[in-house]
Amino acid sequence: MIKEKLYGKTLDELVAVTKKAGLPGYSAKQMADWLYRKEINTIDEMTNLSKKMREKISSEYEIGLSAPADVSESRDGTKKYLFKVLSDKYIESAFIPGKNRATLCVSCQAGCRMACIFCMTGRQHFQGNLSSNEILNQFRSIPEFSNLTNIVFMGMGEPLDNIEEVLKSLEILTSEWGYGWSPTRITLSTIGLKNRIREFLEKSRCHLALSLHSPFDRERARLMPVQKSSPVREIIDIIREYDFSGQRRLSFEYILFSGLNDTPAHIKELARLTRGLRCRINIIRFHEIPGTELKSPAPDEAERFRDALNKQGIPATVRASRGEDIGAACGLLSTLEQNKQKINQ
Ligand code: SF4
Predict the structure, then answer these.
(1) Location of each CATH 3.20.20.70 domain in the chain
(2) Sheet of 316-318: strands edge to edge?
(3) What is the pLDDT of residues 268-299, one digit of tens each?
(4) What pTM value is reported for the model?
(5) Residue 133 parent element (H or E)
(6) Widest CA span in the chain
(7) How far is the CA of 109 from the centre of ligand 1 (A)?
(8) Residue 62 to residues 1, 89, 145: CA-CA distances in angstroms?
(9) pLDDT digit string, tens, across residues 62-98
(10) Which SS3 state, helix, strand or coil, does residue 167 take?
């Protein structure tokens, strides 16, 4: 019998579990405390429930944590964890240690249906949405769990395409009955889906990173097919309705491709597009992937682009490349693992 997983359930969902078991209402909070504060691994450790009750709950539920299937470690300390999800798929999470922070980049889907041409995950096509259990398990089941300072939803998949489970994960991470993290420690990175972005902006206070990659409609549509159904100008118009003047941060991710999106015309248009917004542009040097003509820029090209943006009054930074020796491009490791599994079948 496949048991339901308790880890990854919101307080409302735990109330339903306790009601069904005939427990008083307050036991849902106690259960949340065991799951998200006391970090138990078995239902039997919920010692404020009677033995009989623990047995009853265990007959239908399990905690539902699972260790990574593999890990690769870079010379710079970055680690890529591989997790098995949806019974036979693989996803990646990247642990990125820094001077004063330790960030985990989590995945929210196996594969992705957005088909951005520069992305290995896009090539895997869509294989399924992760549940909040599978999203949060990436955070809870790595050895660095207790040292983590930040989480970015920037791994495999498009978070707004799995908004229900992503919002549940954010609720568990930021509620006082959950992990109690400040939303300012969490960033959701999206390519921008116009019928979903409002829901995220209204239901969460986490930071937003919008993947821009080109300010020109036709060029962006060639890189990211989503531009046709969710034009970036419409997404930015929606973003302008929300308050980013306080602690909540807005940033634009800009993958720099040599000779493509790095001209003075791009800088001028980026300045026009972001005018009046309190934001930052994060420049990311493209990591080359097999089978594409897109080229990675030299480090000094990225720095020149950053300086030119700064001159226009746009705060911009070049994100340091991490984990290049273990395949920094997201989706490489899981693609290799999936190919390995196919060969072994
Ligand atoms: S860049 Fe993001 S949205 Fe685009 S295909 Fe890759 S995972 Fe999906």
Answers:
(1) 70-344
(2) 70-73, 79-85, 89-97, 102-106, 150-153, 186-190, 207-211, 250-256, 280-285, 316-318
(3) 999 999 999 999 999 999 988 888 899 999 99
(4) 0.94
(5) helix 132-140
(6) 70
(7) 10
(8) 11, 21, 21
(9) 999 999 999 999 999 999 999 999 989 999 999 999 9
(10) helix
Q: How far is the CA of 180 from the centre of ligand 1 (A)?
A: 29
Task: Label residue 259 exposed, middle or buried (CB < 10 Å: 0-12, 13-18, 19+).
Answer: exposed
CATH topology of domain 4-62: DNA polymerase; domain 1 (1.10.150)
CATH code: domain 70-344 is 3.20.20.70
Tell me which residue has tokens 């957005």: 114
Give the span between the Cα atoms of 235 and 228, in whole angstroms: 12
Rounded Cα distance between 150 and 170, Å, is 12
78's tokens:
């970055």
Kindly report, as residue ranges, where domains of CATH 1.10.150.530 are found in the chain: 4-62
Give pLDDT tens digits for 23-58: 998 999 999 999 999 989 999 999 999 999 999 999
Active site residues per annotation: 92, 330
Ligand 1 pocket at CB < 6 A: 112, 114-116, 119, 121-122, 156-158, 191
CA dihedral sign of residues 297, 251, 81, 331: negative
- What band does 155 get if pLDDT is binned at 50, 70 and 90? very high
78 to 97, 103, 253, 297: CA distances (angstroms): 6, 10, 20, 22
Which amino acid residue places its CA nearest to atom 4 of ligand 1?
116
